[in-house]
Amino acid sequence: MEHNWFYIVALISCSSIIAVNFFYTFKLLNKILYFYRAKSITDELNIGDYVKVQGVVKMPTIESPFFNLDCVYWKSYVWASFETKRKKPDTGMQEHTPLLELKESVMPPLMVRQSDMLVHVDFSQKSSLMLNLDKRVKRKRAPPNETTAKLAKEKYKMYKVHEYSLPVDANVAVWGKVDSISSNVITIIGSNSDKQPCFLYNGPTASVYRLLKNRIYLSMSIVSISAFYFFIVEWGYSSSFLVLALFLFLIFYLQKLSIKKLF
Question: What is the spatial distance between Cα 158 and Cα 110, in angstroms, rounded to a whole number?
């Protein structure tokens, strides 16, 4: 089988994908090791230790604005939606979704209880470090509140609302650095170190580990499939152009899945 332009591009693409996924898998393995090595608050702790907490959120109950849910924190986005014709030489319609409103609730001290200990989670920019929040979506033809009604335009045909919330008594997993220790309260803060990733995850620690492990398996599967494909093309096995093209499409599709945001 001659190495025409398709096969040369395929070989270069597969080589690049293999290299990228080896590097990505190494990063994921490092990250999961950091999480595993974090101390439990049942251990003897010192200021500056990197710790993990599994406990229940203990904060005042509030109500979310669009779905009226009892929660301890909420964040909402409202987008308008309208279409315009694509500029020539393109054809068809193009959707536009300008953001009209972004709001979040006022966050009191974030407290998590594990057994008989209270953990004060004192992260800066808490909303960006709170992962896997409950998400609800609705679409409305009319502006969903007074603020967006003032910004409404005749061309807006639809309004999209995304609301994220942290439920009352949510069971959460937290990783952070010990800042202070008292008799029954430990304060943990964020860290700028890549070796101490800090966040609050709405769910058990096992879910975080499972997400990381599944992504590692996917990345290594891409490496294996790409290497097999590389072998087929390199040694000129008698496969049709269509089969090889579909095989390459599968590799790129899996690669697209592997770069999706983890949390």
Answer: 36
User: What is the torsion angle, in degrees rounded to the nearest 10, for the CA atoms of residue 10, residue 15, residue 21 and residue 23?
Assistant: -160
Question: Which SS3 state, helix, strand or coil, does residue 243 take?
Answer: helix
Within the chain, residue ranges assigned H as helices are 5-37, 126-129, 146-151, 205-234, 241-258
Quick one: which of 169, 178, 204 has its CA closest to 54?
Answer: 204
Among 239, 241, 227, smallest CA distance to 22 is for: 227
Q: Mapping DSSP to helix (H, G, I), strand (E, B) and coil, where does residue 140 land?
A: strand
Lowest mean pLDDT among 41-50, 164-173, 204-213: 41-50
> What percent of the chain shows pLDDT beyond 70?
94
Polymer length of the chain: 263
Q: How many CB atoms lie within 10 A of CB 51?
A: 19
Beta bridge partners of 95: 83
Q: Per residue in 90-144, pLDDT tens? A: 778 899 999 999 999 998 899 999 988 899 999 887 778 899 999 999 999 999 9
